[in-house]
Amino acid sequence: MDFDTIMRARRSVRDYKKGARVTREQLEKVLQAGQWAPSWKNGQSFSYIVVSDPALIAKLGEICKNNACSAAFQTASYILVLCADPEKSGHREGKDYYLVDAGIAFQQSMLAAAEQGLGMCWIGAFSEQPVKELLQIPYHIRVVALSPLGVANSYGQPQPRRSMQEFASENGWHQPISFE
Which pLDDT value is given to residue 20? Predict the structure, then answer.
């Protein structure tokens, strides 16, 4: 698949084929995509915890039970836990760039998953402290997001996007842009 196709095909997948397993080779490709993501001054502040133990996955599912993606914890092959060390990234004008670093890494992983017919779904609604305790994550490390990783059962339909005129401006806020 070319990039444009992958970008448009990627969905937040919450429905995984029960019993279908993501191979270790596929997992490695997903992780490598995140590994090569750019970051603030190449600080590489982000890291993943790959949860494969069914008991740990079930406990993470309990922590995320109020999330729309909670059923995915029963059928996904892995849960990826996206962590970041704020000390390895920048902070400027009230912005914590470890969040940007981590977001770029996760998006690259999501695109690599989509390229392989796999699915992921960004989960940001969870209590951080129970996740940190369960996975023995140090105090100074932040848990930015979680995502199931599995063989997608369905991708769903693309959601509408704003027009280019609503989305992009040229030389100022709400200044029309033209591609002619």
Answer: 92
DSSP designation for 42: G
- Give the other-Cβ count within 10 Å of 59's Cβ: 17
The pLDDT of residue 110: 94
In sequence order, the 6+-apart residues with CB closer than 8 A to the CB of 79 are 50, 51, 56, 57, 60, 73, 146, 147, 148, 149
Q: How far apart are CA 157 and CA 180, in angstroms?
A: 30
How is 60-104 classified by DSSP, letter by letter? Answer: HHHHTTTSTTGGGGGT-SEEEEEEE-GGGS-EETTEEHHHHHHHH
Could you report the per-residue pLDDT of 21-33, keeping only the tens digit for each? 999 999 999 999 9
Question: Which sign does the torsion angle of CA 23, 108, 118, 67 carry?
Answer: positive
* Confidence band, pLDDT 50/70/90 cuts, at residue 129: very high
Q: Which of 111, 30, 18 is nearest to 71 (CA)?
A: 18
Q: Are 46 and 34 in contact (CB under 8 A)?
A: yes
Mean pLDDT throughout 70-81?
91
